[in-house]
Request: fold
Amino acid sequence: MARAFAKAFYNSSVWKEVRESILKRDSYMCQMAGCHNPAEEVHHKKELTPDNINDTSITVNPDNLISLCGKCHKIITARNKREQGTEDILPVVVFDESGYPVIADSPLGYTN
Reply:
């Protein structure tokens, strides 16, 4: 969910057009190595902050954007929170190929 400072940006026609162009660029497929799921989200590699929300080299730069499925996006977001020391959620748990729960260590690199 978008934070308050970014809501207007994410509701803008500029973002909606850029988002669609990134999904098309990536053939509507998640770009995480090893993932073959359809992309549902467009992720900012460099996180949006109140200080950079008006910087188009970050907000709409195709080099800063990647298409991800919901699962990979949650994994990356959780990892970023851990790295920044702002994690306020439980570890991300995903299921391996056999259906067993494992804690996600990094995008598609699970600990077990």
